[in-house]
Write a structure and sequence with these properties.
globular
Length: 544
């Protein structure tokens, strides 16, 4: 079949952010917009010619149309085989699993993750390399550069592929396989966790849980694993049917957007365990009875208890956390005598460390936790890890975390997000801080003395690549920190994220309300950054 060569001109701003290219749906719907970006992937990722591509998305609005376009472009660009998820749907961690398991040359994932979906909401696309992880900056920069010069793309004319039937078909010379990714992913989970112990916990009759799939991609995976393989009660999975608009909500597993689950785990009738994941299934939130596990703590607890899960019984080689994530994991690494790495925000920075075997576990404060089993953060994996701990320890979530704090101390932690801020004001705020930074060390701010203040840069220990301007860190002598950075996943204006952390060794002081415990540092951050004066905001939009 002859491929058509279509003339095109570059679009501004096709630069991937923290995790791929994310824009409003109507931006992607412009003629040639998606095609230009996809052609830039094929032009720069030459291993895909003659190779195998994994393709799927989180099922949001425009997913199906985009899949059909990418399939016809893959055929025109000599990709020999495409593995596409049934219905065009693949969770991000399942895509990573499939890329690795079938030794493919990479994958294209269509997702805007936790951002809302629908005709006037968000869409996204990203490329994952053959190791299964999000493309490193060298690759995303090459793709971006190509989008700035692109003048044509290739596509074949063909009828749409039936995405709803498992099976094979040909599109030109390209073999398209519609696969059921749930089984491969579930098998991987069964190889890592003690399914017998979790099954026994579920059948004990004394344990009640819910998993909130938030009408996003994990529903089918969670139903198969939790209800079918592990014998959890039917209806353990709530909002389990993926919808194009996620039921009109933000598929963002935090205390604000997963409030239904929060209510189920609070009060007299509270469940023992609640968990949720996001639009594309890579994030997780873990709740106990009247208890919220901060993602930074979750990473630390999993690291400290890793050997209780069969997949990690040999122990861990090291851990990594993104820079704004609390230092709770650092203390565990120190106790275990393993390395702890501090990387910029975004999962792509963990890839080399995982590939080199330097780390086994990694995580981000933004509800992301994962390990070397795939190269993405993995929501259900984290939930199963917690279930494995609960089943083996026979303690409540709160008991496990409190015991952890008694041993390692507590890192009080919060993140304040100011969304949809005027971009010029946000840039001005960051510039103001850059100017302030050199004068801060040694200064006394309230009860806190500044130990260091910098514009975080990271040199990858494996390939020596350098990532600059990854956020502003202000560290105090007692180990407390204020971190500020602008989001790289938003689609409207700027989002300012302010991260606050304070260490408390004394277990008599581990039960304070978080916002109260951190109030002095929160105030210092607001004043230093002149948040109100520069953005007009007196309160954050989201507090996690
Ligand atoms: C946010 C989080 C970051 C995460 C990224 C992608 O990025 O802070 O930790 O890796 O989202 O997560 P930003 O630049 O908006 O702060 V997901 O679940 O969107 O793939
Ligand atoms: Co996500």
């Amino acid at each position: 079949m002859q491929a058509s060569v279509i003339s095109t001109t570059p679009f501004d701003g096709q630069k991937p952010g923290t995790s791929g290219l994310r824009k409003k749906v109507n931006t992607f719907q412009q003629p040639h917009y998606l095609e230009n970006f996809v052609q830039a992937i094929f032009d720069t990722q030459i291993k895909l010619r003659g190779g195998t591509l994994v393709l799927g998305g989180d099922g949001r609005f425009y997913n199906r149309e985009a899949i059909q376009v990418i399939l016809r472009m893959a055929a025109a660009n000599d990709v020999s085989r495409v593995l596409v998820g049934k219905g065009g749907i693949l969770s991000t961690p399942a895509a990573s699993c499939i890329i690795r398991k079938y030794q493919t040359q990479g994958g294209i994932i269509l997702s805007a993750s936790h951002n809302p979906g629908g005709p006037s909401e968000d869409f996204g696309i990203k490329f994952n390399i053959d190791a299964g992880g999000p493309a490193p900056e060298s690759v995303t920069n090459a793709i971006y550069e190509r989008t700035q010069r692109i003048d044509q793309y290739q596509i074949i004319e063909a009828d749409p592929v039936d995405l709803d039937q498992i099976g094979e078909c040909r599109l030109g010379e390209t073999q398209v396989q519609v696969i059921d990714p749930v089984a491969d992913y579930a098998d991987l989970m069964a190889s890592l966790f003690d399914f017998d112990a979790i099954q026994a916990l579920f059948s004990s009759g004394s344990f009640r849980m819910r998993f909130d799939a938030m009408h996003a991609v994990t529903g089918p995976y969670a139903i198969e694993i939790l209800e079918h393989r592990l014998g959890a009660e039917p209806d353990t999975v709530m909002n389990g049917i993926p919808l194009e608009d996620f039921g009109g909500d933000h598929p963002d597993p935090n205390l604000v957007h997963a409030h239904e689950l929060v209510e189920l785990t609070s009060g007299a009738e509270a469940l023992d365990f609640g968990a949720a994941s996001d639009g594309d299934g890579d994030r997780n939130m873990v709740l106990g009875r009247d208890f919220f596990v901060t993602p930074s703590d979750s990473l630390a607890v999993l690291a400290a208890n890793a050997q209780l899960a069969p997949g990690y019984k040999q122990g861990i080689s090291g851990v990594a956390r993104s820079m704004p994530t609390s230092q709770a994991a650092d203390r565990v690494a120190e106790a275990l005598g393993v390395a702890c790495f501090e990387t910029p925000t975004g999962w792509k920075f963990f890839g080399n460390l995982l590939d080199a075997g330097k780390i086994t576990l990694c995580g981000e404060e933004s509800f992301g936790t994962g390990s070397d089993h795939v190269r993405e953060k993995d929501g259900l994996w984290a939930v199963l890890f917690w279930l494995n701990l609960l089943a083996v320890k026979r303690q409540s979530v709160a008991e496990i975390v409190r015991e952890h704090w008694r041993r390692f101390g507590r890192h009080y932690y919060t993140r304040h997000d100011y969304e949809g801020v005027d971009s010029t004001a946000a840039d001005g705020l960051v510039k103001h801080l850059y100017i302030l930074l050199p004068s801060l060390p040694g200064q006394q701010l309230g009860d806190f003395k500044v130990a260091f203040a910098d514009d975080f840069a990271y040199t990858d220990p494996i390939d020596g690549s350098v990532a600059k301007h990854q956020g502003i860190r202000i560290g105090f002598e007692d180990g407390s920190r204020i971190v500020l950075r602008l989001s790289g996943t938003g689609t409207q204006g700027a989002t300012l994220r302010v991260y606050i952390e304070q260490y408390e060794a004394d277990s008599a002081r581990h039960d304070r309300p978080v916002q109260e415990a951190l109030a002095p540092l929160i105030l210092i951050a607001r004043e230093l950054a002149q948040i109100e004066a520069r953005t007009g905001r007196t309160e954050p939009d989201v507090i996690t």
